[in-house]
Design a protein that fits this description.
The protein is an alpha+beta fold and 558 residues long. The protein is built from 18 helices and 19 strands.
C-alpha cells in the first residue's frame, strides 16, 4: 500500500492531478449534460477536463525535467506548473475559473503543503476566483468553492481531516445550488462547474486518504446527498432528464453572439482598464492570471472589439472566437459544409504559422515552455472543419498528445491520419507535397515519405554544465542537435551551424531549409547559404523566418 502524504508535496500534487483528470474524464459527459448556466452549450465538463489536462501535463513536464535526478521536484515548482498549465490551457467560462482556483491555491502551497497551508490555500482560491469574475453569481462554482474553504477552516487537525471537510462542504453546497440560481431550479440540475470542482476535490481526498469518497446523488434541492453505489453527483431531481429540450430562462440564453478567449501579456494597470472595457461590451467576463500573463474570457456581440481591446492592453495570442446561434433555447456552433480535407500543423513560432496558413493549413503554435494539450489539437481539427484531416505534430514529445487528439476527433466522425513528424522542417516538407485532390491514403503516404526523407537539426544554448552524447558541455555553449541527439558542441552559433550542415550534407542532400529565430540576423542566413553553395554545388537553400521560437536556428536537409 503506498504511503499516504502528510502534506501536499510535489509527488502528492502529481497524484492529485492524475486522479482529478481521471475523475473529470469519467464525469465529463454527465457534466456537459447538466450545463445550463451561463450558456446552455453543453461543454462545461469538456472544458474542465481540457483545462486540467493542461495542468497535469505541465506537472508531468516538471517531473520529466528531473527524471535523471535522485529527488523529486520542489513542491513550489509542481504547484506553480499546475497553475500555469491550467492558465494557458483554460477553456470556457468554467475552465477559466478553475484555472484561477488552482492559481489561488498554488500561491499558498508554494510555501508548504501542510493542513494549515491547505486551509489558507482553499480560502485564497475561493477569494481569487470570485475577484476574477466581473459579476459573481451565487449558486455557481464560486459558491461551492467558498463552502469548501469554510468547511476546511473549521476542520480538525491533519491533512486528511481538512481535505475531507472541504469535499463534504463543497458537496453539500452543490446540492443547494438549484435553490440559489433560478435557471438551475427550473432545469432540475445542480451547477455544472460546481460539480466539476467537487470531482477535483474528490481526487484530492483520494490523494490524501488513499480512498475515493463515496460519490453521491442529491435527493432534491436543499436536501442532504444520499450515497449510491457507483453513482455520482447528478442533476436533480433523481432520475429526471438533466436538461430539457428548451429552457425559458433569460439567464441561460438570449445572450451575446460570440465567446472570445485569449491569453494576454500585459501589465496589471492595462488589465484593469481592459476589464472595464470588456465589461461594457458583454457579459460572462472572467480575467485570471497575473505576473504579466492573463487569460481573458468574455461573451460579446462584437468579437472584433473584444480582441482590439486586448491589442490595446498588451499582446493577445491563442485567440479563440466561437459564434453562438440560438435554436430552440440551445446554443450551437454555426458550421458550413465541411471541406473534403485539411492539414493541421503544430509550429514553434509565429513566422512558420503564417507560412503554413498561406499554404492552407490550420496551425497551432507551440510557444516555448507551452506545448499544446490534446484538447487544443482537437479544437484545431474542429476549426479545420473537414471530413479528412492530416495531423502534423512536428515534435516527438507530442506524439502521445497528438494520438489522443486524433482518437478523439475520430469519435466525432472525422477521418484523421497522424503523420509522426518530429520537427517543424519535416512538417514543412510534408506540407509541400500535400495534394488535397488525390486519394486520402495516397496523400498521407506522400506526406509521410517527404517527412521521413528530411533530416532535422536545431541549435540550442546550454543552460548548465551537463553530459551529452558529444561530450561535456558548459553553460552558454552552443549545441548542435541532429535528429534529436547532441552532435556538436560549439562556442558560437555561426560556426556550430556550419559544422552541423557539413555533417548532415556528408550523407547527401538536395535541399537545405533554414528557419531563423526572432533575434537571429539575416546575415547568418546569407553566410550559411554561401557556405552550402561553396561546399555543395548541387544543393539549394531556402530560408524562413520562424519568429519567436525556442531554437535560434532550425535546419532541414532533404
Amino acid at each position: 500500500m503506498p504511503q499516504l502524504p502528510d502534506d501536499l508535496d510535489a509527488v502528492a500534487v502529481r497524484t492529485w492531478c492524475s486522479l482529478a483528470l481521471e475523475a473529470l474524464g469519467r464525469e465529463r459527459a454527465e457534466i456537459d449534460a447538466i450545463n445550463v448556466y451561463p450558456v446552455a452549450d453543453g461543454d462545461t465538463g469538456t472544458n474542465l477536463y481540457l483545462t486540467f489536462e493542461s495542468a497535469a501535463a505541465a506537472v508531468e513536464a516538471v517531473f520529466a525535467a528531473h527524471e535523471t535526478g535522485t529527488t523529486a521536484p520542489a513542491t513550489a515548482d509542481a504547484v506553480r506548473a499546475m497553475a500555469h498549465g491550467a492558465l494557458i490551457g483554460a477553456r470556457g467560462n468554467s475552465g477559466t475559473i478553475l484555472a484561477q482556483l488552482l492559481r489561488g491555491m498554488a500561491g499558498v502551497l508554494a510555501d508548504g503543503g501542510g493542513a494549515d497551508r491547505l486551509r489558507l490555500a482553499l480560502a485564497s482560491a475561493a477569494d481569487a476566483a470570485r475577484q476574477a469574475v466581473a459579476h459573481p453569481v451565487d449558486g455557481t462554482v464560486l459558491t461551492v468553492a467558498a463552502a469548501a474553504a469554510d468547511a476546511a477552516r473549521d476542520a480538525g487537525p491533519g491533512l486528511r481531516a481538512v481535505v475531507t471537510a472541504a469535499y463534504d462542504g463543497a458537496l453539500a453546497a452543490l446540492v443547494r445550488t438549484p435553490e440559489q440560481l433560478a435557471v438551475l431550479g427550473r432545469a432540475g440540475v445542480v451547477d455544472a462547474g460546481g460539480r466539476g470542482l467537487v470531482a477535483v476535490l474528490g481526487a484530492l481526498v483520494e490523494t490524501a486518504t488513499g480512498q475515493a469518497p463515496v460519490r453521491s446523488r442529491g435527493t432534491g434541492p436543499g436536501k442532504a446527498p444520499v450515497p449510491v453505489d457507483g453513482g455520482s453527483v447528478v442533476g436533480l431531481p433523481v432520475g429526471g432528464t438533466p436538461v430539457p429540450d428548451a429552457l425559458d430562462c433569460p439567464e441561460g440564453g438570449g445572450g451575446p453572439a460570440f465567446e472570445v478567449i485569449y491569453l494576454l501579456e500585459a501589465g496589471d494597470a492595462e488589465v484593469a482598464r481592459l476589464r472595464t472595457r470588456l465589461d461594457a461590451l458583454g457579459d460572462s467576463l472572467v480575467v485570471v492570471g497575473g505576473d504579466g500573463l492573463f487569460h481573458v474570457h468574455v461573451h460579446v456581440d462584437d468579437a472584433g472589439a473584444a480582441v482590439e481591446a486586448g491589442v490595446e492592453a498588451g499582446r493577445p495570442y491563442r485567440i479563440r472566437i466561437t459564434h453562438f446561434a440560438t435554436e430552440s433555447g440551445h446554443d450551437v456552433r454555426v458550421q458550413a459544409e465541411p471541406a473534403r480535407r485539411a492539414v493541421v500543423v503544430v509550429v514553434p513560432g509565429d513566422g512558420l504559422a503564417g507560412l503554413c496558413t498561406e499554404a492552407g493549413a490550420t496551425t497551432v503554435i507551440a510557444r516555448p515552455g507551452e506545448p499544446p494539450a490534446s484538447g487544443e489539437l482537437v479544437d484545431a481539427i474542429r476549426r479545420a472543419h473537414a471530413r479528412e484531416v492530416v495531423l502534423l505534430p512536428n515534435d516527438a514529445a507530442l506524439r502521445h498528445t497528438a494520438a489522443a487528439a486524433a482518437e478523439q476527433a475520430r469519435t466525432e466522425g472525422v477521418r484523421v491520419a497522424l503523420v509522426p513528424t518530429r520537427a517543424a522542417v519535416q512538417g514543412i516538407a510534408a506540407l509541400a507535397v500535400h495534394e488535397p485532390d488525390r486519394g486520402f491514403d495516397e496523400d498521407v503516404v506522400a506526406m509521410t515519405a517527404a517527412a521521413g526523407a528530411t533530416r532535422y537539426a536545431e541549435l540550442a544554448v546550454a543552460e548548465h554544465r551537463s553530459w551529452t552524447t558529444a561530450g561535456v558541455c558548459q553553460a552558454g555553449d552552443v549545441l548542435g542537435l541532429i535528429d534529436g541527439d547532441v552532435a556538436v558542441i560549439g562556442s558560437d552559433v555561426p560556426a556550430t551551424a556550419r559544422t552541423v550542415l557539413d555533417r548532415m550534407l556528408a550523407a547527401g542532400g538536395e535541399l537545405v531549409t533554414l528557419v531563423l529565430g526572432e533575434d537571429v540576423p539575416d546575415t547568418l542566413a546569407d553566410a550559411l547559404e554561401e557556405h552550402v553553395r561553396e561546399g555543395h554545388l548541387a544543393v539549394d537553400t531556402v530560408v524562413y523566418r520562424g519568429g519567436h521560437q525556442r531554437a535560434p536556428l532550425l535546419i532541414g536537409v532533404e
